User: Fold this.
Amino acid sequence: MPAAFPTITKIKFEGPASRNPLAFKHYDADEVVAGKTMREHLRFAVVYWHTFRGTGSDPFGAGTMQRPWDDGTASVANAQNRARVAFEFIEKLGAPYYCWHDRDVAPEGATLAESNRNLDAVAKVLKEEQKRTGIKLLWGTANLFSHPRFVHGASTSCNADVFAYAAAQVKKALEVTHELGGEGYTFWGGREGYQTLLNTDMKREQAHLARLLHLAVAHKKQIGFKGQFYIEPKPKEPTKHQYDSDAAACLNFLREYDLLPHFKLNIETNHATLAGHSMQHELEVAGAAGALGSIDANTGDELLGWDTDQFPTNIYLTTYTMLSVLKYGGFKTGGVNFDAKVRRESFEPVDLFYAHIGGMDAFARGLKIAAAIQKDGRLAKFVQQRYASWDTGIGKKIESGKATLKEIEAYILKQGEVAPNTSGRQEFLENLINDFL
Ligand code: XUL
Ligand code: CO
Assistant:
């Protein structure tokens, strides 16, 4: 097979002074930062659906992407060829992982049996390529939203047969993920939500979603799949309201249905924005619950109110993201999956390289800056000292649950008035962060 990117060789680290657009300026995979290499910290994953299936179409116009290796057919042979191209790309880029939906890697057939055969045929090539290159699968997932059968949702459909179809599809996607040594499996509720409450039994739909997840947990055990399960919050799009709306809603749902021990969250930046939160907020909600699993690193456009899935280039964003990731002990099974697409106007194959190099460099800088802030210690110390009144005396007693309201009242009656509060020092802390950028 001729090379798909014949003029591009392996992307190297050349350092910040380099002016080569096809080189890393900051991501040096082997450089040790805070005790681990950057490769181990960041665990970058290339996303199959946007990078190899994205056409550049939008609601106003057709696809624009130039992908000379693609013959434009939905044949298995084309999908297998595309898989080889994907590995040429990922290998030249030097990312250690990739992620897919079942229907991105292999074409949907006329029946589930045919779709499963197609998936097996492409998975065979994926497995060969993983072996040849050492690139691994960060997570797999099933596309339960593109086909018209999922018009009313998948597990939350009003039609039980649609639930059954979705469950069967999840079973197969789990098995293929397992076969390919996937380190995780993600559930994003593509159409698990509603357009209008007038036709919706919300309680029943949510119970059905939980049922699917319980079935997946049971099947995972049965086939001996040890990978991590993730839920990916998103508040809306394509439905008006998605049940997995944000990290807090996902955690509440998982707790209510006794699923929390089996799941962590895959937090996506642009989904946080759509939920009216910052990425850091979502990471902190997940991290505090011990459920920070992985991230989808795309960002939105501040002036557009939809999921634009852009590559991350904002150093503040990557710094705050990595501050939270480091704070909660770093990625275990998860990583930085881009889930981003090049702009419709960036249609040449080389743009895929520029996009990923930029995202990887932005995260490398974020990691280095966050590690330096952590090592400096002033930020963490400030927060610790801010709560010092809880470490002794009445604070300690209240926190540990040993004080009654009566005792607390007696304490404050004796005290008279509380000691003056100290400043929150937001500006001081913002300046402190800037010292490291
Ligand atoms: C959609 C989205 C998905 C999930 C995987 O907004 O982020 O692509 O990451 O299904
Ligand atoms: Co995503």
Notes: Residues 101, 141, 186, 188, 232, 234, 268, 296, 307, 339 surround D-xylulose (ligand 1) (CB under 6 Å).
